[in-house]
Write a structure and sequence with these properties.
419 residues, alpha+beta, Creatine Amidinohydrolase, Creatine Amidinohydrolase, Chain A, domain 1, 4-stranded antiparallel β-sheet, elongated, Pept_M24
């Protein structure tokens, strides 16, 4: 496990590193990083089977007869099948009672079976055949010829239309009450994987922070962060680096940028471990920060505290966002979503996807409960000047929120530590 002491010591060593050519990281100068994922425990078959059982219980409650999942996080969550989407249908059917079934092209069956963790009912179709008739047949064999068929939110139109034509007596409805009712609440095994993903991203920040150089471009910094997370064992890596005025645009700008003395460097990065995501933002100043940068950075840090304190079990998720906006308005920012201030939601759900329901956003009435996971990122953006965003993720327990990563204490020590 990567400790706070290791982070501080490593960051101090990395900060001493210099690069011979501004903007270009020489491999010899980069800190040595090695995978830290040897101790992870993948989701077990027993847990996946329990998820299917939970989904079936929810289907009984909501009177939905079956649900259909396309390749993606939901399919992986319930079955362990790692597949991709194309114009050729591969899907999983979870009936309200009985075993799951898979429909896939004939020539893909051996590969699909390699990825399966349980179940044995695989229906195949040839290129000249209608795959949706296979789905209707599978449903009929489970006694489902009429009733309600739930589709998860990301199912594509041609799939929905094909199912409608192949099984006209089935009413297509949203499967969100089922999939969200399972995926929104993370188990101990899921939380452990998310902690590891966050550990990787935070350690990578420490490596990159020590290598920032005047003249670097966003691409230079993104490459450093991408390589650092990969070296530590992260997958599904994404990075974003914004400098100066561009940091006032939460999702970036195409304008040319390079690091200059006294300039804001805002980074938003993450990775995955066994499909489970991290999402951490850090804001640095290259060189000496001025008084305004210090002030805004500290306000954002306090905004995180306000959100954290408001996130109590049983509280509507939207109240967390309300608390942050009320605090910022007292400090002269806003009001509400107006700039300068916080122009986006305070946070989003996270798990196998970087953005999942529910959100810390105005009007969200879903009550906070143990197992829910969120980002906490109440940035402040000043158009034409700069923006500051600090983002750390948290998970709900019976007694309140806990950090995956603890936010930094000051702009002078801007990395933070593990939760």
């Amino acid at each position: 496990m990567f400790t706070k002491r290791q982070l501080i010591k490593g960051s101090a060593l990395m900060a001493a590193a210099t690069l011979a050519v501004p903007g270009l990281a020489k491999e010899a100068d980069a800190p040595a990083l090695a995978p830290i994922t040897d101790d992870i425990k993948p989701i077990s078959v027993a847990e996946r089977e329990a998820r299917v059982a939970r989904a079936q219980a929810l289907m009984n409650w909501h009177k939905i007869d079956a649900i259909v999942l396309e390749p993606g996080p939901a399919m992986l969550y319930f079955t362990g099948i790692k597949w991709w989407r194309s114009e050729r249908l591969t899907c999983v059917v979870i009936p309200r009672a009985g075993d799951i079934g898979i429909v896939t092209p004939f020539f893909e069956e051996p590969s699909v079976r390699e990825s399966m963790t349980f179940g044995d009912d695989v229906r195949t179709w040839h290129e000249h055949e209608n795959p949706f008739e296979r789905v209707a047949q599978l449903l009929g064999d489970r006694g489902i010829k009429a009733g309600k068929l739930g589709l998860e939110a990301s199912v594509r139109w041609f799939v929905a239309d094909g199912l409608r034509q192949a099984a006209p007596k089935l009413q297509l409805v949203s499967a969100d009450p089922i999939t969200r009712g399972c995926r929104m609440y993370k188990s101990a095994a899921e939380l452990a994987l998310m902690k590891k993903a966050n550990e990787i991203t935070l350690l990578a920040y420490g490596a990159v922070y020590g290598q920032l150089q005047k003249g670097m471009t966003p691409q230079d910094v993104n490459n450093l962060m991408r390589n650092s997370q990969a070296a530590l064992g992260g997958e599904g890596i994404w990075t974003m680096a914004l400098f100066g005025e561009a940091s006032a645009y939460p999702h970036g700008s195409d304008q040319p940028q390079e690091i200059r003395e006294g300039q804001i460097v805002l980074m938003d990065c993450g990775c995955a471990v066994e499909g489970y995501q991290s999402d951490i933002s850090r804001t640095f100043v290259y060189g000496e920060p001025n008084a305004e940068q210090q002030k805004i950075w500290q306000l954002v840090r306090e905004g995180q505290n306000v959100a954290f304190e408001a996130a109590k079990p049983g509280v509507a998720a939207g109240k967390v966002d309300d608390a942050v906006r009320a605090y910022y308005q007292k400090q002269g920012f806003g009001p509400q979503y107006q700039l300068p201030g916080l122009s986006h939601r305070t946070g989003h759900g996270i798990g196998m996807e970087g953005h999942e329901p529910v959100n810390f956003v105005r009007g969200e009435t879903t009550a906070l409960a143990p197992g829910m996971c969120f980002s906490n990122e109440p940035g402040i953006y000043i158009p034409g000047e700069f923006g500051v965003r600090l983002e750390d993720c948290l998970y709900m327990t019976d007694t309140g929120p806990q950090w995956f990563t603890v936010p930094p204490s000051s702009l002078q020590q801007p990395l933070g530590s593990l939760g």
